[in-house]
Amino acid sequence: MFLEWQPVDHSAVAGYRVYRSSDGRMFSPVGSSFIPGFVDLTGVFGQSYIYRVVAYANDGFESEMSDPLEAIVGMTYPVFLPVVQR
Questions:
Q1: What pLDDT sits at residue 46?
Q2: What proportions of the chain, in percent to the nearest 5, are helix, strand and coil?
Q3: Which of 2, 15, 27, 82 is the most exposed place for a label (fewest CB within 10 A)?
Q4: Annotated domain spans of the chain
Q5: Cα separations (Å) of 40 from 19, 58, 79?
Q6: pLDDT value, residue 86
Q7: Are the C-beta atoms of residues 70 and 48 closer than 8 Å to each other?
Q8: CB count, 10 Å around CB of 14?
Q9: Neighbour-count burial for 40-79, b at 16+ CB within 10 Å, e otherwise
Q10: Would you state the pLDDT for residue 73?
């Protein structure tokens, strides 16, 4: 599952944390990213998840959570990965 969002334009932003829930009530961190995108490889095929993202600063302060986004693992969503050449 590839998630992408608009970057936060503020000098204090060090990165982003991605939270996931299967019921929409309890969100747990599933990973973090230094860019405005994240690949969740831990989801169960066919399972519906709700994701929310926060921006964080170096001191650990987190912004409010983004609006929720619901996605089903295994559904067709565009994935864009860079080409790696040796």
A1: 86
A2: 0, 40, 60
A3: 82
A4: 2-72
A5: 10, 23, 12
A6: 53
A7: yes
A8: 14
A9: beebeeeeebbbbbbbbeeeeeebeebeeeebebeeeeee
A10: 81
Task: Specify the CATH class of 2-72 in words.
Answer: mainly beta
DSSP 8-class letter at 42: -
pLDDT in tens, the chain (86 residues): 789 999 988 899 999 999 999 999 999 999 999 999 998 989 888 899 999 999 999 998 999 999 999 988 876 555 555 555 55
Distance CA 77, CA 9 (A): 26
Task: Classify burial at 21, counting beta carbons within 10 Å of its beta carbon; exposed 0-12, middle 13-18, buried 19 or more.
Answer: middle
Tell me which amino acid residue 35 is. I
The pair of three-digit structure tokens given for residue 20, joined into one six-digit string: 């996931």
Scanning the structure block, which residue is given the tokens 């409010």?
Answer: 64
